[in-house]
Structure formats: structure tokens, C-alpha cells
Design goal:
Number of strands: 27
Helix content: 25-40%
Shape: globular
Strand order of the largest sheet: 14-13-12-5-2-1-16-15
Oligomer: single chain
Strand content: 15-25%
CATH superfamily of one domain: Golgi alpha-mannosidase II
Distance between the termini: 45 Å
Bound molecules: calcium ion
Largest sheet: 8 strands, parallel
Length: about 625
């Protein structure tokens, strides 16, 4: 009996400790995320009956009556009759192509994503728009009718609404979208969507009214009007400010006081209602999206962002908000109270600079990563999205294939990651847009290994795991390559000449590699939470190594970027084991062993290979 009391006390203590240790952090999922980006029009056509019709195109006046949805499996640079009728330039018509991807297609492939190991999905814009990319939105409160099962019915329903949220209905597309979110949640995946809050599209209801009614429109304060129409003249003098001068994307009005800006009150009210609608549909947070990626975040004023982030986290403390910013991302991101940014500056650009182009030496690459990581508090740094590519850059396979030393960059500080004049055959006929060879894929596998092991979260652009390639937008937006579809080979080149054939086929080997790499990441907590430290950089051998550590856990990651085998050596840190450590993961599928030699640790690594050890 005398032992009872202490045992009870011990139980009470351990329960207290457990409660403390396991105090749920609603935002923990954000650093454990393995992201997958879906461009909905190009991911999967799950419902051919809803495919876009010519009348749905924002540019329908440019589309001949022979316009039709393009075959999913067709040769990318070959052109349909309606395109050829418009002239001989591929790039003049590709923007009006539709392939019919939709929400049902995403639902159909959730199990594919779960099997790959993905636990977080970022969707490019899903809201109604006349473009294939949907960054020129007609309604932020409706999913595109052509992504859902009943486009005609949806359009009729939308026509009965005003800007008053009390009049908003749930369309068939909206409902299917929410069903998709629910199914993703059931399968352990979070979903964030694109918030394009800087501008709308020409078909946006408020802009259409403004265009029609001019200064008498009740939406006259929503946009930046440069000149009103003079009713006394036959021409329409009405002009407005568009994003980057693009009039198809009218910018929302801002109000500025003492050097600080906000969005115009009516716009802010609208976007507040939109945010609530998708985060807590009918008041139910569990059915809502898990966060937002904020398009061109630096172009929207900071008071709006601060108050919007407060709102988002009041609605759902677990929500994630991430900016799209290409350089100097930490100022706007932290100033606006966001969680993180798409890590173009601190990951995609330097990875291209070192691994693909060898324009950086290992020591310069390390200094770049340190310099771009250090402005972030650790909490935010662990949530950065470490991407290799996106809908706005060439695909990693093509960047690797085109990579070469001694490049003349247009923007040296970005390694021309997404500079159109450089990384597209549209402006640079020498760009290597063709199917990447095995050497390029070796480099991609090294880069993906870095994604899985560096500070921040890995981020895969759809099809990166399937062997897709392509130059800058639009060539990075080809229809997804699926294992169950047979594709025409790429015969045609971007200049309309026969250049191929390049076989287009789901790459099972690469897919297996990504699955294994993601599994390593998800089963090794020190990779998403551990402290970071360089072990060595060797500019002569073109190798480097770093350590992630926390508690008793350690991960050592070693890269050989040279074209010959190299021995990588670094000083043993405290408590280093004496026993040989075989690699737990090698990017080229080979093997490697970490050996302790006195005060040093060494490993021999094959060319163009990365290895991960968990000693
Ligand atoms: Ca469809
Ligand atoms: Ca006039
Ligand atoms: Ca703006």
C-alpha cells in the first residue's frame, strides 16, 4: 500500500507532462506538409460532359467558330484547325486552349496523391473566370461552372445574385468543390486555394456594372478609374488601371492614409465575405479550406493583409496563409502577418544557380541559403514552401536540361528562373525545351532530395513526379501525364517544324523515386523540425554536406554535383557513432557509406548524386 501514493503522484505528473508535450499545436501540420500544386484546367478531366464551350472563353471574339476542346493526349506543339486558322504562331492561340480538367478529376485522383505521400494540396484559382489560368476572376464567391457538373444551371443561378452575400447560392460546382475538400480531409490532406485579391477580370460583376453605368455605378469606388467616359462624344473614353497595365485584370481600388494603404472599404467587405464563405461554408469550419496562397501579395496594401490574416486565424487558428513573392519576401510576408512565402528567392533560384547551371559554387550556394533563411524567425522558416517550379516557371526537368555553365543571364540575381526572354523557346530559340535526358533527371532527383531535407516544406508542381517537362509558361502547363492514358509523342517543335519524336509517358521510375523521397521526409521528423548546420562545402570538388539535428535524432545530407566520383569529408560532431552508416536514401538508387576516421567522417559518392544518412 505504501507504494500507491507515489505511483499515483507519478501518474499525475506524467499525465501533466504528456498534456504539456502533446498540447495540440493547430499549425503543426504546416511544417509537416508535403505540398502538391494542382493547376485545375490541366490536372485531370474527370467529367467530359462539363467541358468548356466557346462561349465561356474570355477571348471568344478571337476564337473561330471551329474552336473545340483539345484532346488531352495530343502533341503539345501541334495545333488544331482553329488554331492554324489564326496564323502560324503557336503562342498566339495556346492561351485559348482548353483541355477540360475539373473538380471531379481532382476527386478521382485524391487516392493517387495520398499514395504518393502528399498531405497538402495547393490549388491554382478555382473561381469563375474566362481564362484557362483563372487569375482574372469573374466571381470570388463561385467556383468556375465549367469545373462542376452543371455549367448551365450554375450560370443561371449566379445571374440571380447581387454583391450582397445574403443573395449568394451554392452552385453545383461550389458543392462539388466542397465535396472534394471533405474527401481530401477524410484522406488526411489539407487544401489551400489561390486568393487573387489585387485584381479581378473583365467579367467580374462589379466591373461589368461600372463599365455599363460609369459614374452612376454603385461600384464606382471598387476600381482605379483613370478616365470616365464623356457622354457627349461617340467614343468610350473610360479607362482603368490593370495589373501590370493589363486591362483584362482591373485592379481593386486602395485607400492611403499617412503612407499606409488598405483596400477600398466596399472591396474589403466583399473579400471578407468571400473569405468566410470558403473557410466556414454555412458556418462549418471543418468543411472549409485550410488556407490561402495570396497572389502578387506585395501589390496589396499592408493594412488589408494584417486585418485579413487576423480574420483568417480567428475563423480557423490552424489556417495557413502564404504569399507569392519572388524576392525580398520576408518584409511583406512578416509585415502582413502571413505564415510563410513560396520560397522562390531562398530555394528555387539558388537551386537552379548551383545544381542546374553551376553558376554558384557550393560555398556561394550555402551563403545564399544562409542569407535568405536568416531573416525568417525559425517558426516561419520551417513553413516556407521550397519549390523547384510552378505554373510561372519552366519545369525542373527542362531547367535541368537547359542548365549549363557560363550562361548570359538577363537577371543574374534570379538565375533567369522565370525570365521569359531567356527560358522559353518563344523568345530564345536555343532553349532546350525537348524531353530531358537521364542526366537532367539525375539533377532533378538531387534537387528533390534537397527539397525533402532542407529547412521548409517540399513542394511538388503537378506532374513533376511523372516526368513532365516544359519551358516557361505556357509550356509548363501541359495536361498531366497519367499512367492510364496513351499520349501522342511530341513530334512538333514550338516553331511548327517536326522535331521529334519525344515519347510522352508516365515515368514510373521517377514516380517511385518521389514516393520514396516523400516517405523519407514524412517518416523522419528531424527533417521538418530539426536545427540546420553546414558540415562542409568544397568548391573544388563541387560537393557539400549539412546536418539536421534535434534531440537524439540526426540526418546528414551529402551532395556531389561534380561529374566524377568524390570523397566528401567533414569533422565529426559531438557524440558521432563509430560504426559505419549505410545511406538510408540515395538519389540515383545506388549505395553510399558514412565512415568515421578518427576526428573525421568521410563518404564516397557517385557523380551527380545526393545521399541521406540517419546515423
Ligand atoms: Ca471536364
Ligand atoms: Ca464618350
Ligand atoms: Ca494593388
Amino acid at each position: 500500500m505504501k507504494f500507491v501514493f507515489p505511483i499515483l503522484a507519478l501518474v499525475a505528473l506524467s499525465q501533466g507532462l504528456l498534456a504539456f508535450a502533446s498540447k495540440p499545436d493547430p499549425k503543426q501540420w504546416q511544417r509537416e506538409a508535403v505540398w502538391y500544386q494542382i493547376f485545375p484546367e490541366r490536372f485531370r478531366n474527370g467529367d467530359p460532359s462539363n467541358d468548356p464551350v466557346r462561349d465561356s472563353l474570355g477571348g471568344k471574339e478571337w476564337a473561330p467558330s471551329s474552336w473545340r476542346v483539345r484532346a488531352w493526349t495530343s502533341d503539345w506543339y501541334a495545333r488544331d484547325a482553329w488554331e492554324q486558322a489564326r496564323g502560324d504562331n503557336f503562342y498566339w492561340t495556346v492561351g485559348e486552349r482548353r483541355y477540360g480538367g475539373d473538380i471531379q478529376g481532382i476527386i478521382d485522383k485524391l487516392d493517387y496523391l495520398r499514395d504518393l505521400g502528399v498531405n497538402a494540396i495547393y490549388l491554382n484559382p478555382v473561381f469563375w473566370s474566362g481564362s484557362h489560368h483563372k487569375y482574372d476572376t469573374y466571381s470570388f464567391h463561385h467556383v468556375d461552372p465549367y469545373f462542376g457538373p452543371d455549367p448551365k444551371g450554375d450560370l443561371a443561378l449566379i445571374a440571380t445574385e447581387t454583391e450582397d452575400p445574403a443573395t449568394w447560392k451554392w452552385t453545383a460546382a461550389d458543392k462539388l468543390f466542397l465535396e472534394m475538400v471533405a474527401k481530401a480531409h477524410e484522406k488526411g490532406m489539407r487544401v489551400i486555394i489561390d486568393g487573387v485579391f489585387n485584381h479581378a477580370g473583365l467579367g467580374f460583376f462589379a466591373f461589368e456594372d461600372l463599365r455599363k453605368n460609369g459614374q452612376n455605378s454603385r461600384f464606382k469606388d471598387w476600381f482605379i478609374v483613370q478616365k470616365w467616359d464623356d457622354p457627349g462624344t461617340p467614343d468610350n473614353e473610360f479607362t482603368w488601371q490593370g495589373w501590370h497595365g493589363i486591362t483584362q485584370m482591373p485592379e481593386f481600388a486602395e485607400v492611403w492614409t499617412d503612407g499606409r494603404g488598405d483596400l477600398a472599404p466596399a472591396v474589403k467587405n466583399y473579400l471578407t465575405a468571400v473569405t468566410r464563405r470558403w473557410m466556414q461554408p454555412d458556418g462549418n469550419v471543418a468543411r472549409g479550406v485550410d488556407g490561402w496562397r495570396l497572389d502578387v501579395a506585395w501589390m496589396v496594401p499592408d493594412i488589408f493583409w494584417q486585418e485579413w490574416n487576423k480574420l483568417v486565424h480567428e475563423i480557423n487558428p490552424a489556417a495557413f496563409t502564404i504569399t507569392e513573392i519572388w524576392v525580398d519576401a520576408h518584409k511583406t510576408t512578416l509585415g502582413g502577418h502571413f505564415d510563410a512565402t513560396m520560397n522562390y528567392e531562398g530555394f528555387a533560384m539558388p537551386v537552379k544557380g548551383w545544381l542546374f547551371d553551376t553558376a554558384l559554387k557550393p560555398s556561394e550556394f550555402a551563403a545564399w541559403l544562409d542569407g535568405t533563411r536568416s531573416p525568417w524567425p525559425e517558426w516561419n522558416a520551417l513553413r516556407l514552401q521550397n519549390l523547384l517550379d510552378s505554373h510561372d516557371t519552366p519545369r525542373a526537368g527542362s531547367a535541368a536540361a537547359d542548365g549549363r555553365p557560363g550562361k548570359n543571364y538577363i537577371k543574374r540575381h534570379e538565375f533567369d528562373l522565370a525570365v521569359g526572354g531567356s527560358v522559353s523557346p518563344q523568345n530564345n530559340p536555343g532553349y532546350r525545351w525537348q524531353k530531358p535526358d537521364e542526366r537532367a533527371w539525375k539533377l532533378v532527383r538531387m534537387a528533390a532530395t534537397l527539397q525533402m531535407t532542407y529547412v521548409g516544406t517540399p513542394f511538388i508542381y503537378y506532374g513533376g513526379e511523372a516526368g513532365m517537362w516544359g519551358a516557361n509558361d505556357p509550356d509548363c502547363r501541359k495536361p498531366m501525364i497519367w499512367d492510364d492514358l496513351a499520349y501522342d509523342p511530341e513530334f512538333m517543335g514550338p516553331d511548327g517544324k517536326r522535331m521529334g519524336p519525344h515519347e510522352v509517358k508516365f515515368d514510373r521510375n521517377l514516380h517511385s523515386f518521389f514516393k520514396a523521397a516523400i516517405s523519407l521526409r514524412r517518416n523522419t521528423p528531424v527533417l521538418n523540425a530539426g536545427a540546420f548546420q553546414w558540415l562542409t562545402t568544397d568548391d573544388n570538388a563541387n560537393t557539400l554536406a549539412f546536418l539536421r539535428s534535434g534531440g537524439n535524432a540526426r540526418a546528414v545530407v551529402v551532395f556531389n554535383r561534380s561529374e566524377i566520383p568524390q570523397t566528401v569529408r567533414f569533422a565529426a560532431t559531438e557524440g558521432w557513432p563509430d560504426a559505419d552508416q549505410p545511406a538510408d536514401f540515395v538519389s540515383d538508387g545506388g549505395s553510399a557509406v558514412l565512415r568515421r576516421m578518427g576526428g573525421e567522417v568521410i563518404t564516397d559518392l557517385a557523380p551527380l548524386t545526393a545521399a541521406v544518412f540517419l546515423p
